[in-house]
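Before relying on records like the one below, remember that each one covers exactly one chain. Contacts with other chains, cofactors or solvent are not represented anywhere in the record.
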Amino acid sequence: MNFVVGAKGRLGRVIVNTPSFQAIALNRPVYANWWRTGSADAVSRFFERYSNEEQEARVIYVCAGILDPSLAMDEHHQINFLLAKHIVEGASKLGWRVLTFGTIMEKVIGLDTSNPYILTKTKLSEFIREYSIKTRNTPPLHIRLHTLYGAGLPSPFMFLGQVLDAIAKQISFEMSSGNQLREYHHINDELKAISTLVAAKINGIIELNHGNPLTLKEIATYLFKEFNCLELLKIGSASTPLKENYDLVFERPPLLSQLTFRETLPGLVNYLHLCKENHGELLCLN
């Protein structure tokens, strides 16, 4: 039996609903306080009852996380760092494999940021790196993700969510020069990649790249053109961030060399069409 901590988010929800992962959602009241000091022991006590089951690799997918940078640093620190840290410390000594998830921006920006999401995920990856080297327990795996899409609406505070909002409401979309590089990964492709990494039994930190980035300008131009509202796009009307990825192209890990990732631009168009068809009324109300 495998478990997902944080099954309401995009990734956790899809893992639970994919039979091949054989994972069930852990009820939130069970882990709600695992960020508190001393919670590693509570984690151990909980998973100990399942540790006698015959299973080659019991896995805990820690998908719980706060992405919205407008929320308080304390909230990010509790969920993005402390909760994951205590699960690793408490479960790995029982032989459980723990997977945590972060962001590729840990490598691009790291600790030199005021963004609480990137900051806390960077701290988590530093902990995972040190723990994986020093521990005699089952070492964890931290997967740095790019931007996911599919399975529900995009988050309203993220680029794709803002693009969809402008298209649905037919309002102007002001953006920077758009030279930032991004990889977009469909959630179903990501699941295949995660399954491959789990089967390989690697640990430490890995970047889940497909290696085919596009600039935000390319993405926005294609989407607004496909939805016949290119006049709404205002490139260069917003300030351009200094700390960003403007030239770094990530290589696909050799373990994922045989996997097929769908093309970004057609994939995003299909996704936004589905969002409008299935949630159009909701989009216009927000």
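The chain has ten helices and twelve strands.
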